[in-house]
Amino acid sequence: MILIVIPIAGLSVVFAFGNYQSILTSIENERGQAVSDFAVRTDVWVTSVLRTVFILTESIQAQPGGAIDCYAVAAQLLYKMEGYNAIAINNADGRSCFSSRTASITQDLALRVLAEYREKPHVRLPFSPLEVEADYGPVRAGNERHLAVYERSVLENGSQWESVTFVDPSLLDRFFELGSGKSMIVALMSPGLIPMAVRGAREEDMSWLPQAENIVAGSAHWRASAQDGKEYNYTTEAISNSDLYILARFDDKPRADAWFRFVMLVSLPVLMLAALFASYAHFVRTGITRWISGIEQAARARAHGKAELAPVGEKMPADIRSVALAFNDMIDESIKRESALSQSLASNRFLNRELHHRLKNSLQVIQSYMSLSRRQQGSRTDTSLAEMEAKVLVLSVAYRLALTDNHMQPVPLKPFTEEIILTLASALNESGRSIEAKITSDAGLAVDRAIPLGLVLVDAIMTGFKGADTQSVSISLEAMEDGRVELQAVIDGTLPDSQQPSRILKGLAGQLQGEIVPTAPGGVIRLRFHC
User: Fold this and answer.
1) What are the Cα distances from residue 340, in Å, to 176, 196, 324, 333, 353?
2) Residues 163 and 97: beta-carbon distance below 8 Å
3) Could you report the per-residue pLDDT of 133-165, keeping only the tens digit for each?
4) According to the model, what pLDDT value does residue 180 have?
């Protein structure tokens, strides 16, 4: 199910993201096209103004008369054209005339504008066969904004005329609908962030303008902070052959709508897939996994020594039910076999314990007979009988200590060696010989290793007393720093032959898994072993 859900969810996200990117691209294209349309409309409007100014100027020049007649004709024509506020003309015949409908535009201002545009480069008018050049741009007269249209024409006789007409920019707003939706503000701008005509906001409202001007050739798109402190997307489009340009501000509502659509396109399929996965997982959990978990739990309990059957129910799938029944049959058979094995093991343990117990009793009987025989013979006998008695005692004591709680356990070294030494000391006391013991290790040994240790101890003591001048044997059994235990036997006299351990001692040391190390003079044996 995961292999199905995850790829489908991934494809849904990829599809939604691609749709989101296409919407964003469409929004950007529409914005660029809208600004370009405004620039084209403005260009067409300016061209129509240039034609009107050309016709107006030609009409004034065609009127005969003096300068006074020129002024009258200019005023008459100007007042018939709404939105044309003032005009100043230098005729080819030397006449000059000026007329203004507003007090803010004076003749001095008009002449100054004429002088400024006279020195600037101009463009040829596309609608006249004559050599007519034109230029236009914003002009401020007091608190009013105007569009100054300059034209100049060279006649066939070499003379020329020039004029400047001051046009109200509101004509652009009146003749061309620049309006947009609620998400856009567009304006005809002059350099210095001076709006000439605005649609989508009040003309006196400057808060929507960017904090910094960005004028480039052609068009530009950028995101910047407005004068109200918020960030918006801006687009500019230059007007051909002019310093004017179109500035549009777009808010983020279309992009937010596109993002909402992206989230919805992603969320709905993902939520549906999640619900499908949850329902499928619930079905698997209740219909399959629960029963398999029951079988697994029973198997793990069996691994820990507990007899637990797998659950079986009516709603269980047939295949899993068959597996559960087979598993329970296997558990039943295993329980029966384990019960039989436990009974057999208990019987074997009882027989083994009984065998060891009888062996211990038999050894104790033999040791008692030998002790009794040694006492009846008195001090006239040698130590052979005492040595034999001690070796039998080793076996008897080892089994007795190992079977203390009716089951085999490690033989504690301290009581084991002390009892052997005490028995030998009692047997040798009649001849005036003594045994000194220093037993500090409290470790334990398995019975099959304790017996060789006891025999080594008996053999070392009896070997030490074979010296003619030996009266005492010192026995020490101590734990070492490396974790081993050291057994050492030292006499107060001289050994009869040499200090080399006998073959019997070496064999017993091998059974004990110990190491015989060299001893000092007077040492019978020095044996180290691990418990």
Assistant:
1) 108, 109, 24, 11, 20
2) no
3) 888 788 888 878 888 888 888 776 667 888 888
4) 47
Residue appearing with tokens 């937010």: 256
Interstrand relation of 444-445 and 231-238 (parallel, antiparallel or unpaired): unpaired
Helix pair 67-79, 2-62: axis angle to 10 deg: 140
**Under CATH, which architecture does the 412-529 domain have?**
2-Layer Sandwich (3.30)
Domain ranges of the chain: 1-251, 270-381, 412-529
Q: How far apart are CA 194 and CA 467, in angstroms?
A: 132
Global pTM reads 0.45
Taking CA 378 as the corner, what is the angle to CA 376 and CA 384, rounded to the nearest 5 degrees?
100
Size of the chain, expressed as the number of residues it contains: 531
Pairwise CA distance, residues 522 & 473, whole Å: 10
236/213 Cα distance (integer angstroms):
10
Interhelix angle 503-511/447-464, nearest 10 degrees: 160
Residue 164, CA distances (Å) to 105, 114, 147, 181, 199 in order: 12, 6, 10, 36, 27
The pLDDT tens digits for 436-457 are 888 888 888 988 888 889 888 9
Residue 97 in tokens:
């005339």
For strands 245-250 and 194-199, give the pairing. Answer: unpaired
Q: What is the mean pLDDT of residues 69-83?
A: 76
Place of tokens 């463009």: 123
**CB of 9 closer than 8 Å to CB of 269:** yes
DSSP collapsed to 3 states, 264-323: HHHHHHHHHHHHHHHHHHHHHHHHHHHHHHHHHHHHHHHHCCCCCCCCCCCCCCHHHHHH
Distance CA 465, CA 349 (A): 42
User: For residues 525 and 374, what is the distance between their CA atoms, to the nearest angstrom?
Assistant: 27
